[in-house]
Design brief:
The protein has about 90 residues and is an all-alpha fold. Helix content is about 70%, strand content about 0%. The mean pLDDT is about 75.
Length: about 90
């Protein structure tokens, strides 16, 4: 499920890349790379709560990167983290 979410997010990011400034793209790309590295660590872990926590951490890192990029270059794009769908952050 987590890999599906990351795959969809990456695909969406590519489709919307032309809508953001280069600086916002860089912030989002860095967050995605960090999230992918965390997810790779989780993949190497045995099933259980620690692995799930690591996958959740990867989701949060990616969402925060999207939010930061949107704050830098808000042009009407609505990131998944702004809709609350799939949002892992507590409000």
């Amino acid at each position: 499920m987590n890999k599906l979410f990351i795959g969809l997010a990456a695909t969406s990011a590519l489709a919307l890349a032309a809508c953001q400034s280069p600086a916002a793209d860089k912030v989002e790309d860095q967050a995605e790379a960090k999230a992918e590295a965390i997810d790779a660590q989780a993949d190497a872990m045995p099933e259980g709560p620690a692995k799930e926590a690591m996958e959740n951490k990867a989701d949060v890192v990616e969402e925060k990167g999207e939010e930061k990029a949107n704050a830098m270059d808000d042009n009407g794009e609505i990131a998944p983290s702004e809709t609350g769908v799939g949002d892992t952050q507590k409000k």
